Amino acid sequence: MTTQAPNEAEHTASDPVLHRGYLHIVAWNTVAGANHTYITDLCALADQEAAPKDAIYKNGMHARVQPGEWITYGEMGDPDDALRVAALVRTLEAPTAEPTPTLHLPSRSVVVQRLTPRQPPG
């Protein structure tokens, strides 16, 4: 199975103004197929709440375990998902403006293209 990140999610991944340093949130939600708006909003919420930088998502208030708390990369239960996220975070951290090749990971592939980051309003 091949999963391609939507172009909007790719843009969030490459723009520090949008992801605010929460690359694990970007990676996890890109793998999950989330859209640009969701990822951007979640990164903004993480920044506002001073979530750990390796947060991947926030549990809902009705979750059976850790309701309303940020779940981090270290708390991921599925080792294959953890490998996917780690590989994508490494790719996002790489200083390049060239398109990133497809990441071939166990049972899925994720395509992320690094775009030129937008400059913050000056």
Estimated share of beta-strand residues: 5-15%
Q: Give the SSE string.
A: EHHHHEEHEE
Please give the alpha-carbon distance between the first and last residues: 43 Å
Going across the major beta sheet, what is the strand order? 1-5-4
Poorly predicted spans? 1-7, 103-116
Most strands sheet: 3 strands, mixed
Radius of gyration: 14 Å
Structural class: alpha+beta
Shape: globular
What share of the residues lie within helices?
A: 40-55%
Number of strands: 5
Count of helix runs? 5
Task: Give average pLDDT, whole number.
Answer: 74
Name its key features.
alpha+beta, disordered N terminus, two-stranded antiparallel sheet, 5 strands, single chain, about 40% helix, about 120 residues, three-stranded mixed beta sheet
